Amino acid sequence: MKIPVSVDVSEPDQAVMHSNMTGTGVPYSSSYFAYGDHTLHYVEAGEGELILFLHGFPSYWFSFIRQMDALKQDYHVVAIDGLGAGKSDAPHDVDAYRLENMAAHLNALIDHLDAEKVHIVGHDWGSTFAFGFAQRYPDRVASVTGLSAPPQNVLLGLMQRDSSLRQTSAYIDRLKQANPLLIKALGGDKRVWTGAYEPLIKKGFLTPEEGELFREATGNPKRIDAHINWYRANIPSFGAIEDADFWPDQKTRVTVPAQIIWGQDDRVFAKEYAEATKASSDDMQILSLTDVGHWPHVERTETVTRAIKKLISERHQK
Question: How many CB atoms neighbour CB 218 within 10 A?
Fold first, then answer.
């Protein structure tokens, strides 16, 4: 029997406290939103049009703090902890992590935040989720920015057609076999730190204090296992992809103003992903960044922030 991952909602979010002590201007606040059987944790600041940030794997809301700091003076910025991550619920039921179910929760949160439409920004799995949400709920999305990952239906289509991309993404099947004991035994919790965050600190993109916040928030093997449910629920074995696996379906396009941003040194993202995403969209821009890896919003903070603001501005001009 699995022991549930507990969330103490009375315990302050250390990243919120850090951001409010080191930052200036509009303060951040931490809240929870329940929908159905599950509760999401989110952090917000500012007023105006809503910009919603969706992090990737393995991360949490704090990964977008630079963009939130830059935009909170003019917008209502909100970043969630995705289901299984951060301080959100981490259910054992894999079905809870299906994109359709998480999108329904996100749509209800937008209602809760009293917004008719949202500018949505996602990285990695958050990018896949953001594009998919724009496909599923186009009337709720004013613009969408995806970093370092394509929509789920584009990804699966490419996996069916391109054997080289299947090899690049073979790590996904290995991830899906994990469990908390195996993650701990193989040092997977430590490799999250050494593989993702320690290099960003060494390169000066994160401060040591920020790195410790990421180490604490992403190092729990039970939470890592819960977050892997995003893969288990939505990415079938590449050799057994069926029509029903595509979400929202095989042919749904991104019809809202959109952009995809990727780093040319990214070992996970391939140029083919950007090209296929553009081909499956009505109004898509591509921003390719040299000397940038898998974390464009951390490695090129100002460039990504300007791109988000530019897309929002262009949307208003149409």
Answer: 23
**Three-class secondary structure of residue 204 per DSSP:** coil
Of 306, 275, 248, 304, which is closest to residue 150 (Cα–Cα)? 275
Q: How does pLDDT run across 108-117, given as a tens digit for each residue? A: 999 999 999 9
Residue 176: the pLDDT is: 87
- In angstroms, the CA 203 to CA 44 distance is 28
Q: Residue 185 carries which side chain, given as an amino acid letter?
A: A
For residue 127, what are the CA distances in angstroms to 41, 55, 122, 269?
A: 19, 8, 4, 12
CA distance to 115, 136, 193, per residue, from 257 (Å): 18, 15, 35
Phi-psi region of 36 (alpha: psi -120 to 50; beta: other; left: phi over 0): left
pLDDT tens sequence across 238-270: 889 999 999 999 999 999 999 999 999 999 899
Could you give the CA distance from residue 220 to residue 3 in angstroms, rounded to a whole number? 13
What is the rounded CA–CA span in Å between residue 276 and residue 269? Answer: 12
The C-alpha atoms of residue 297 and residue 63 are separated, in whole angstroms, by 8
pLDDT, position 3: 58
* Global pTM exceeds 0.90: yes
Whether 110 and 245 have beta carbons less than 8 Å apart is answered as no
